[in-house]
Amino acid sequence: MLPINRVKQALKAGQPVYGTMLVESASTAYVMMLAHAGYDFVFIDMEHGVYDLGVVAEMIRVARLTGLTPLVRIPDLAYDLVARTLDAGAMGIMLPRVETVEQAQTLVRYAKYPPEGVRGAAAGRGHTDYRGAAPRDLVRHMNEHTLVILQIEREAAVQRIDDLFAVPGVDAGLIGPFDLTISLGVESVTAPEVESAIARVLDAAQRAGVACGIHSSDPQQTAVWRARGMTLLMSGSDAQFFSAGARQALAAMRQDHPRSSSPVDATGEPGAV
To answer: What residues act catalytically?
Structure first.
């Protein structure tokens, strides 16, 4: 039996799902840790991350085995990136830097089998857990359960947001507030212009019946947008968690102890031992 996409089912039902992103760690053990921590999904980042497809495929396999829904942010709109990543077992694809309806339509075509798209079929791969599937079953199941996500991080996308969300086969829009801030030409992700743009995207998603989400470095900010109706919710990354955890542990060890006792001076450069 082909596995269902629980994240896509939850989003279609209007239920929130929670995830994070991998950008540095290639450890499959870390993927298992996220599953055991209770995350619903993990995004493996091929745009800014350090991964090639072989590493991505290994992390996808472990995610599927542990019940963690594996999603991938591809670096660009290319058929081989979409098809090979989905064949490896990714249960959803996100395209960054979306600006046009044509980009959204092409992403859907690449991600779906005929008649909805042009994806070529291979049955005994990661997306079937190497079990294979009859042609009709493969097409029906994958077209239903593959999650297609547009990343909304450019002013041009916000201006065309109703048209983007009207593209058949688009399941969700996920806002990248950092890039959106740069695109809008403002200084802070908390600027009123950014909040207004995000609200505009959320309103359009709700009108279109498309899931809307955000990836924020601040989990409290993510919770604010959840309360306003977002359901595809992400915070942080492996790099952020490692850095924050390391700083927290170091601060606890240094409690009530002079900073100058460290072999690293206040500038962060190695000092004399």
So the answer is: 48
